[in-house]
Amino acid sequence: MFVTKQKLTSALSVLALLTASQFSNAQPNPDNLALKWQVLDHGIGENIFKGSLTITNNGIEPLGETGWALYFSSVRPPASVLPSSDANGDFARQHIAAQHLSLDNADVAKSGDYFVLKPVAGFAPIPPGESREIEIIAQYWQMLKNDSPSGFHISYDGQAPQAVLVEVNMDPGDPKQTTQTANDNMPVQTTALRFSENNAPLANLTLQNQLVPKPHSVVTTENEFLTLMSQLTSITAPASLTKEAAYLQTALSDLLSGSFTINSNQQNGPNQITLLIDSNLDTNQDGQADASGYKLEVDAYAGIKITGTDAQGVFYGIQTLRQMIPTSIYKNARNSATLADNAVLPASVIVDAPRFAYRGMMLDVARNFQSKETIFKLLDLMAFYKLNKFEINLANDEGWRLEIPGIPELTEFGAKRGYDLNEDTMLHTFMGAANEFDSGDGIENKPTNSTEANLGITPNFQGFEIAQQNFLGKGWGYYTVNDFKEILQYGADRHIDVIIEYDFPAHARAAIKAMEYRYNKYKDTDPLEANKFRLIDPLDQSQYYTPQFYNDNFVNPALESTFAFLDHVLAQTKAIYDAVPDAKLTRLHGGGDELPHLGPNEWWAQSPAVQLNPATAGKTDAELFDYFFLRWKQIVNQHGFDMATWGDVLSHNGTGEVNYGEIYPIFWNNVWGWGNEHQAYKFANQGYQVVLSHATNMYLDLAYNKHPDEIGYHWAGYTDTKKTFEYRPFNIYANAETDKLGNPVSWNPNWVLLNETGKQNIQGIQAQLFGENQKSPEILDYMTFPKLLGAAERAWVQEMPAEGLATEQAWHTFTNTLGQYALPLLDYYQVVDTHAQMPQQVGVNYRVPLPGGKIEGGQLIVNTRFVGMGTEYSTDQGVTWHCYLGPVTLATTTSVQLRTVTDSGKVSRIAKIN
């Protein structure tokens, strides 16, 4: 058993005697309750599974027959909340009622993932020292531990709820727990399976293959080197490259003793790093200048020269130069007292330019908020791998994350979650995350830090940690106007365009509830002000149920106040951009996704406001969507932004008969077998400027593989670094090996091929990191890296390896690149903090892959996913560890544990061989 505040010493029992009186009917102190969740069986019916919640009473009073309510969140809702028309709902309600319990939505709105378990007549109290297993029928399936219920808190007789911590058990070897359906042939990851997959040989890499993304051309001069600092002492740059020079100066000063001066003298010299712009630079000899291209010359006698087609190209040449600096220099720089005196670089000429103009990453901070400093670090790492578009999802159902002057309620209310069943002062809790370990969210006695939340064990964040289910995650938080100006400037300094996403008309619950809070604030004193930004028709009886279990997250297109709200938000957003001259006013992402399918759902059909407005009266739901989105696009354009959208706007939600004009759709839904795999190509062929973000390969928030201890979702399958690296933007069908359940994918004659015109309309690719499971900066790192490096490779590198053997060989090379160069450098990576905006941080919590291994002929044989990384083995259950250098002879009965170890000492989760 674990040791936490729940079970520290017998002294707590004495304390319980003193404090139990505060709970009516002498219920046990919540500190003395322990919970355990376990998956039991996925084979009980379609789209449901059976789990169990065990309540252990370690207190001195029984958990009573009445008077308590246990609240929690769950991304796999109890089936008991389904309507009476659903047979699974009736079955689940009967099953829970037979245990003398009720299980329903917790909040008054009955919208979202927040539920409450209560005793009903006939419930037998749980005596002190005893446990009760409660079987729960839940919707869909649970393949990973982070699919479990989370954020438990118990209330006695309506008093303020108290936190109760939970354990989660899943047996990866039990098919009942890990097999989604009878058609699920996706294997659970094992040590033996990894061994068979880790088939890349160790390679001696050229300089070209040491760099990520791989440059177009690299020519080295054998046995010639240049020494930074001892030979070079200054950076020469014209006024137009002042920021690039300052960035380079900071980057080098972080790594090497001494300092580089900056001057504008354009005389090339052996003691200089020279930065230049040549707008005619042709990197591929096709007779045309290449935007963002660069030429990096490292000459043992003439110094270093970086020539760019533009300032962006110069900046990318600087990133390549940074990657050429040996990892040992980065390692020494962990401590300013041990900075190296110099760094030796191979003499070389590198010529390079990007494949796509749009090389992006999306981060969702609405579900779980991330600090400004976390964003800074991510932007710097994106720049290191030559990505240039950062989309930030600031507004969704679960939170509004940007201060909007003139509408303070958006953050007063919409940036907070907690125990508020009526949602009078904040959103109700989602995904088990409210105000993390801080007060203010109405949940008392929470853990005070991540170690307490992790049941007394300091989290390693190399996979699932139980803290994720025990209040880890920032449901509170937002960026002030000044914060966001700093983010815009930080991106601009790194040639990254920051693109805001405000998702409408659906995914708008945080805004809707915040404006209801505003309405209630003013309704009695100033009705006009109360209705000024109202987003819903309170008489609307339309019924729908979104994929995230909401029934109230659509703004109403018949209300002029809806468009007044959007116009005000956009005006204030533009003002923020205008205040940062270096920030480009490019695109704004207007959303448009995940309205549930019409038929079983209706969007606005029962809204009286729709029929009262001549502009909307008589329109179908699909026509109302078109009406809304045309006006939304008009507002976006009026404020100087181009309109980006999700591909759903074109492929699903409207009538398909409206010309939206110039929009930039991002297509995500290519899940094999769902029928939408070809949509991106269809609309690119029609002339739309398309960005690809196909979920099967570009969703970083999908789990790396099928193992209960991995973090992430799996609705589109599992995505690892190999998936991002092997992604084929112009032929995604070549990536269709198996569907999300591990079954072969058959060719669909309805799939559209990308024609030559369509290829010209593919602007680029975007990796996506949605925030439901990004409950700490360490988890964000883990889910992003090294997957993002594969995406960066595909976005930048102009030549795709041929399908088949060439792709496999390219992957083998890339595994060596990561194992020998890229990941060791990330161990010691420092943000280039030109303006001293954040505390020094060293290293990235990338996913350290578990080793593969087998025992054959009495010998232990081990390999790794990324060739060159170290591994260790233990034959005494982890008491002692030995470096694996080659096959090891073992006793036939030995049980072996394996782990991968990085240069900085980080370790993977433990793999076992019995």
Fold and architecture overview:
This protein is an alpha/beta fold and 914 residues long. The protein folds into 4 domains: 5-184, Sandwich (Immunoglobulin-like), CATH 2.60.40.290; 217-352, Chitobiase/beta-hexosaminidase domain 2-like (Chitobiase, domain 2), CATH 3.30.379; 358-424 and 464-827, Glycosidases (TIM Barrel, Alpha-Beta Barrel); 852-913, Immunoglobulin-like (Sandwich), CATH 2.60.40. It has 24 helices and 34 strands. The strands form 7 sheets. Strands 17-18-22-23-24-25-26-27 form an 8-stranded parallel β-barrel, surrounded by 6 helices. A hairpin with a 6-residue loop joins strand 1 and strand 2. Helix 14 (560-578) packs parallel to helix 16. The protein is globular, with a radius of gyration of 28 Å. The model is unreliable at 1-24 (pLDDT under 50).
What structural keywords apply?
single chain, 914 residues, alpha/beta, Immunoglobulin-like, Chitobiase, domain 2, TIM Barrel, 4 domains, 7-stranded mixed sheet, 34 strands, 25% helix, globular
Radius of gyration: 28 Å
Give, in spatial order, the strands making up the sheet with the most strands. 17-18-22-23-24-25-26-27
* CATH architecture label of the largest domain: Alpha-Beta Barrel
Give the CA-CA distance, first to last residue.
Answer: 24 Å
Number of strands: 34
Protein structure class: alpha/beta
Strand content: 15-25%
How many separate domains make up the residues? Answer: 4
* Mean of residue pLDDT values: 95
Q: Give start-end ranges of low-pLDDT stretches.
A: 1-24
Please write the CATH class name of the largest domain.
Alpha Beta
Note the overall shape: globular
* Major sheet size, sense and barrel closure: 8 strands, parallel, barrel
Helix content range of the residues, please? Answer: 10-25%
CATH topology of the largest domain: TIM Barrel
CATH superfamily of the largest domain: Glycosidases
Number of helices: 24
